[in-house]
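Repro case for the chain-ordering regression, as requested:
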Amino acid sequence: MNNTATILDLIRTKSPLVHNITNYVVMNNTANGLLAIGASPVMAHAIEEVEDIVSISSSLVINMGTLSKKWVESMIMAVKKAKTSGTPFIFDPVGVGASKYRMETAQILIKSATPDVIRGNASEIMALAQLASISKGVDSSMDGQDAVAGGIELSKKLNNTVIISGAIDYIITGDKISTIENGSPLMSKITGMGCTATAIVGACIAVENDMHTAAIAGMGIMGIAGDMAASASKGPGSFQVNFIDALYLLNETTIKAKLKLND
Amino acid sequence: MNNTATILDLIRTKSPLVHNITNYVVMNNTANGLLAIGASPVMAHAIEEVEDIVSISSSLVINMGTLSKKWVESMIMAVKKAKTSGTPFIFDPVGVGASKYRMETAQILIKSATPDVIRGNASEIMALAQLASISKGVDSSMDGQDAVAGGIELSKKLNNTVIISGAIDYIITGDKISTIENGSPLMSKITGMGCTATAIVGACIAVENDMHTAAIAGMGIMGIAGDMAASASKGPGSFQVNFIDALYLLNETTIKAKLKLND
Amino acid sequence: MNNTATILDLIRTKSPLVHNITNYVVMNNTANGLLAIGASPVMAHAIEEVEDIVSISSSLVINMGTLSKKWVESMIMAVKKAKTSGTPFIFDPVGVGASKYRMETAQILIKSATPDVIRGNASEIMALAQLASISKGVDSSMDGQDAVAGGIELSKKLNNTVIISGAIDYIITGDKISTIENGSPLMSKITGMGCTATAIVGACIAVENDMHTAAIAGMGIMGIAGDMAASASKGPGSFQVNFIDALYLLNETTIKAKLKLND
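-- result from build under test --
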C-alpha cells in the first residue's frame, strides 16, 4: 500500500476520536467528513470540559472561523493541554488577514502552543508569515505559489508542517515541499471545504506520527474525493452529497490510480 | 391505523411547535427532520426568551451536544418552565460519559425537572444509570442489550420512558419493554441521527399523551425512513438526502408494511 | 438583459463580500446560497472584529433567528458601522412576534440604524408594523396580502424597502408594490429558505443601488431556483440539493423565460 492508503486504512480500523473546536458554519460538514472516512468526531468548546475532551482524544483541530472571546479562551486552554498530553494538533487560521482580532488571536494561539500542522489558503499563510496582511474575507485571492516562500519561512520558524491549499496543494516541512494536484474548482463554491480538509488532516495526524506524511494523506484524500465528486455533479449542491459519498467509498485502488502527488 | 401512523398523521394535521435547545452541529438537520414530518421547529436559547417560547410550544427538546455555561442556564430555565406549563419534554444526554461537566450537567437537568422521555445510545444510558461512566465521545461503543438493565433502573427511578437507540431500539417504561429493529448501519456514519431521533420523538410527544406509544412512533418513523433511504443510497452523503425525502414521503401503508415492532 | 439577470451577472463578476450576522441553524445554507450565485460570504459576530468586517464588506445581513445578548450587541455595533461606512444592510426579523425579547430586539436594531431592506413573512412584517403581535414560531400563518397594508406602512415610516415573502412575494417601497409569483410549496418544508432569501437579496444590494430593483432581483433568483429545483425533487432533501445547483446554473435565458414579475 502507499502511505495515503495505509493511513486511511488505519483511520477506518482505529476510528480515532478527533476533537474539533471549530466554527458554527462548518461543524456539520466537518463531522460528516470525519465520519465518512471512519474517524470519530467530537465537538466540545466549554472551558469546563475542554481539557477532559483533549485528554481522551487522539488529535485536536482548532479552527478560528467564527471567533469570540469565550471560544478563544477554550482554544488556548485546549492547545496547551494538547502539548502536555502529547496530542497532535492542527490549526486552521480562517480569514486571518480579515481583521486585527483574527491576526491577534492567531498569534496568541501559536504562542500558546506550536501547532504540529497549519493549513490555510495562500492569503492566510502569507498573512501568518506576515508577508502580507490583507485578506478578502475567507477566500484565497492569491496564487498558492506566491505564498510558498511565506510557507517555508513559517514552517522553519515554527519547526512544523504548513499546508497551502488551492488548485495545487503545497505541503511544506522546512525545505521539503510536496505538491498535490487533485481537486476541483467546484470545491471553492461550497463553504467549509478548507475546514473539512483541516479536519481530515486532523484525523490523519491521529494515526500517523510523521506530520508531512499525514498532511499528504489528508490533502490527497480530500483532492481525490473532490475529483470523484466533481465528475458526477451538476453544481455545488450535488457536489456536496457526492463528496461525502466519495470519502466513504475511497479505497486503495482509487487512491493509487488517482493521487497526483509530486513528492 | 396503527398508533405510529396515527401519530404521524396528527403531527401533519396539527403541525405542533417543537422548541429545541440543541447543539450547534445538528440544528439544521433537526429542523429539517421536524419539517419533513410536518412539525414546526423553533430554536431559541436566550435566557431572555426561553420561557416565552416554552409557553407557546407543544413540546420541548433538550440536547446537550455542545454545552456551555449560558446554554445550561437556559436549559434549566426551560425544563422548569416546561413542568409548570405542562409541556412534555425529552432529554438527549449527548456524550454524557465523556466529561465530568457533561455528567454534572445531566444530573442538574434531571434534578431540575424529570424528563418525560430520555433518549441516548447504550453508553449514554448506562452512564446516566451510573452503571458505567466511560464513554468514547458521542458514539456508542456498547451493545444496546447491555444497557437494558440500566435503562429499566433509570426508567423506574425517574418514572418515565427511556429509549436506548442502536441496531435494536429499546423503548422502556418501567418493566414494559418494546423493541424496534428498523434502521441501517449507515445512520451511524452521519452526525446527528441520534439528535434527529430525539427531536422526532419530541414531535410525537407533542401530539400523544402516552409517552411509551409516542416513543415507539418516533423511533419507528426514524427507523423506517432509515431503511427506505439506505436502500437508495451509495454512501452517507446520498443517505442524508434520501432520509429527509423518506421522512416526507412516509405514509400509513409504508409504516404498516415495514415497522418491525416487538411490543 | 433584464435587471435581475444584470444584477446576477454583476454578483458573479464582482464577487462582493457579504457580511452575515445570522443564526446558527442556517449559517451553512446561507453561505452556500451566496457562494452558488457567485458572492463571497463572511460570517463574523465578535464585538472585537465586527466593525472591521463591516468596513471591508459590500453589504451586511442581520438575521435574528437565534438571539442572545452578546450577539445583539454585535448586531447593533454592526448596523451603526454600516450607516457610517455607507454599507447597505438588510434585516431579517425571524420570529419577531414569538417573544417579547425578539420584539424589543427588532425595535432596538431598527432604531440603531434603519435597514435599507427588511424581509420577513407575513406574520413577521405585521408584527413589525405592530398591526399584529402574535406569531407561531418562525413560520408564517398569515396570507401575504393581509400583511401588505402593514408592509406599506412600515416602508413609509422607515423610508425603505420591505419584502413580504410567501406564495406571492411582495416588494414594497412606499406606494410602489411589485409581486413575484415564482417558488414552490416545498420551500416551506426546509429550514432557512427565508434566511437564504434575505442573504441573496443582501448580495443584490451589494451591487445595485436601487433597493427596490435589488430586492426584486434577489426574490426572483430565489423563486426561479425554487421552481427549477422543485420540478426535479422527490421531497425536501433532494430539493435542497437541487436548489443550490439551480442557483449555480441560473442564467439570463432561464431568468427571462421563468420570472413571473408583476412590476
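Ordering looks correct now. The CA atoms of residues 22 and 193 of chain B lie 13 Å apart.
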